[in-house]
Amino acid sequence: MDIQEVARLANVSTATVSRVINGSPKVRPATASRVQRIVDQLNYVPNTSARYLRAGRTKLFGLIVSDIKNPFFPELIDRFEALSGNHGIDVVFTHTNYDRKRLEQCLRRMEERNVDGIAVMTSEVEVSALERVKKRKTPLVLLNQIELEKSFPNIHVDYTIGFEQAVQHLKALGHTRIGFLSGPPTLSSAQRRCAAFVSALENAGLRAGEDLVVASTMDVDGGVVAMHVLLARARRPTAILSTNDLMAFGAIQAAQRARLSVPRDISVIGFDDLPMCRMLTPHLTTIALPREAIAESAFSILLKAATPGAKVKIARHSIATELRVRDSTGPVK
Amino acid sequence: MDIQEVARLANVSTATVSRVINGSPKVRPATASRVQRIVDQLNYVPNTSARYLRAGRTKLFGLIVSDIKNPFFPELIDRFEALSGNHGIDVVFTHTNYDRKRLEQCLRRMEERNVDGIAVMTSEVEVSALERVKKRKTPLVLLNQIELEKSFPNIHVDYTIGFEQAVQHLKALGHTRIGFLSGPPTLSSAQRRCAAFVSALENAGLRAGEDLVVASTMDVDGGVVAMHVLLARARRPTAILSTNDLMAFGAIQAAQRARLSVPRDISVIGFDDLPMCRMLTPHLTTIALPREAIAESAFSILLKAATPGAKVKIARHSIATELRVRDSTGPVK
DNA sequence: CTGAAAGCGCTTACAG
DNA sequence: CTGAAAGCGCTTACAG
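Predict the joint structure of the above. Result:
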């Protein structure tokens, strides 16, 4: 069933039906309501493809993430989709599985769909593919791609604030020997967090002993391993900051197995603020990475850029991190 | 840039360009390669909307879930999207937030996009909206909607097997007093799990003492509360089964706070097999709900139904549950 | 306030 | 093997 059939049954032209559907004010109320009745009666649903072909905009946004199974992403996706829905925009969703090559395919698929904008929320990125999309005038927004900030709108997570707060919190509790569970040296996000830790420590007038930073994999097991190393140090730290929550969970398990109580014997702070933080005992003190704020920022950047006649200004959009104090930190003994 | 421009530069008609793009065999190789060169050179990407409008199929599947933040869904979405990608199908993603009304809107949006099929992976469902979609011949597949199995293809999670295995596992370890942490009486999935537990118990020749089934909310706190109740019983159970993993985590925390060791003093079994199960100490023994199998089943049902000329047969597609033995269960003292 | 008609970018039956 | 032309279902400038 199409607009023709509605037009025929309502005894008007398709132009009039179209106007009614789109809420044009220049239709006589009587005509409009007659048409509307037929539309409802037939349960007529306009064809988006045809609409787009004529009108130019698809009302479709692309959302590309690395890995939906990473607990970082669901809240971001949820928020992005909800905002889109509120604006009558649908979301085509793909994931790259941390594979640069797949990003290229994902972008290609988005191009074919003529999406009105693409949020590329992956850590790994393929510049050539992005440039190609840009050439087609499709709005883009990236996440944490500092090197590309001159070429694309970028959402920049500011680690500084959260780490400053965390270190100040520990200092206020009397801690001076603070260890850090770092991620792999190859991962830029991990390196940036480590740098934020070191500089926060210096700003607090504390020393970042080299023996108190241990690199490992960014999962629970990595946290267990790194914690074992730290606990074996001659003078072990009284508090630990971690590159992410999963490592912090591992650190707590390792401490408990070593008969240390958290936070009585040692304080632990994570990073991310996963939902899990409030499911474990003790509830994890952590630096929150505001995933919903990232989604909101990405969405509003795309929405603005997709507005006809908008001129895209390439800018950095900073998102602050923030300490959430819970039960895994306490005064030094 | 469109097919016209490619045609002009290649000195052929748009029909020929179209044939080349679509890999038609009836183009002279020399012509084909000349056209292909232009296509590559211009980085020409065909317009999906125009294609669809002509060809009828959108190569778009709709995926509707309740809540992406529920750890049940990410793996399902991931798998569904990966399979779709492999078949050149894109996925429009929406969520209902457990709201029936929103399902209606989600379906409506899918209809407007003329998706080739819709996977409705929500627990709550609005029959009238589904019937409307069905009338438009759009293939649908539902999850755990037993009452609608006569009207729609349905993926049916078979709780029996997993619960049988769990009870047998505990019986083999010497347990005879087995408690159950149940969900709210209003939730049909919770009720079905409880029924599966009771019947497994009977099949094992054990009694399901009424005093050993406690209902609560299906989160960590609910597990804590329910466990407190069970531990206060005159003769407390030596093993616990739980409606989901989150409650089981709560149960373990409650046990540990009561100075009981898991599994030395009490065994605990969850349900779902969330990634978290292997992040906690002890690693949780649980009944796995195979989320990827559900995604695969949903995808293949839609793919088959979306094939032109396919006749849809409405059938139940059973997915088995399965016990995964880890460290939270042990012999009775 | 309403309609006739062009056209969005493709594909495909038809003709050659 | 290739092209001219119709048509998928809409919207919109234009005319009245």
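Chain A is about 45% helix and 15% strand.
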